[in-house]
Amino acid sequence: VGLLDSKSGQVVEATVLHFTQQQQIFQFENLPNPVVLSILRDFSAPVILQPDVSSQENSPGEEECERLAFLATYETDGFNRWEAMQQLYTVGIFALMEQQEKSSSSESIVAKVLDAFKSILLEDGIDPSTKSYLLNLPTESVLSRKLAQPRPQGIHKSRQQLGTLIKVALHKELKSLYDELTQSIEAESVEAQTDRKSRAKRSLRNVLLDFLCFCRNDKKELVTAANLATRHFEEARCLTDKLAAFRKLASMSGPDSVGKARVVCNEQFRLYALA
Hints:
The protein has 11 helices and 3 strands. It has helices at residues 62-74, 78-102, 107-122, 128-135, 140-144, 152-169, 171-186, 196-212, 219-234, 239-251, 255-274, and strands at 2-5, 11-14, 35-38. A hairpin with a 5-residue loop joins strand 1 (2-5) and strand 2 (11-14). The chain is globular. It has a 3-stranded antiparallel beta sheet with strand order 2-1-3, covered by helices on one side.
């Protein structure tokens, strides 16, 4: 377990706790500031840890949301940071779903998601591969497994809504990094490079494309996103990039995106037939 200073985010103490009883209390003394727990650091086996949250299903309290946002921003253990961001995303998506169904407020939770996302997006000392994992939204299938009763339409709509909120709030930053990665990839060579650094840049660029193509019910915005995804597909140097663009085109609504997706699909099948 690690203790992160709640003001600086620095690890002030890290130790191994030995559990020998069903219930135990561990005390840490002489700490300069309040701390946030970083649990199961450097753990090598998969563990599902259920935190002590409010009694409402999938609705952690304000304190737990603060903890997740803090860990998503400052955690130094890579897996723990990813897990915190995934949980924060999940809380945000479920809060939006509850807002749609019960008119409850999700503003404060969404604000925490946006702050954590922006911090990760703009962080310089993090490699593209790690950043792509941290920013990537949980899939609808993963979200569904966290509910007692399946609610596929609510999950899909709320996930799309959170992605759109992120895109609207941070469009400038998302597009700037996307363009920077595009220029870097294009400068490498004609063929897609298979080294770790190049793969990481392409992975992050595909995640950024995903967010840039989330759209409100606005025709101009939809056309802009469809054009970006189409260009991403046409200029892709590997199948992974093509698939990322095609998925976004196929998921968009409206005649422009559907038409582009159909053209892309026809072209892809034509290439397979000629191979």
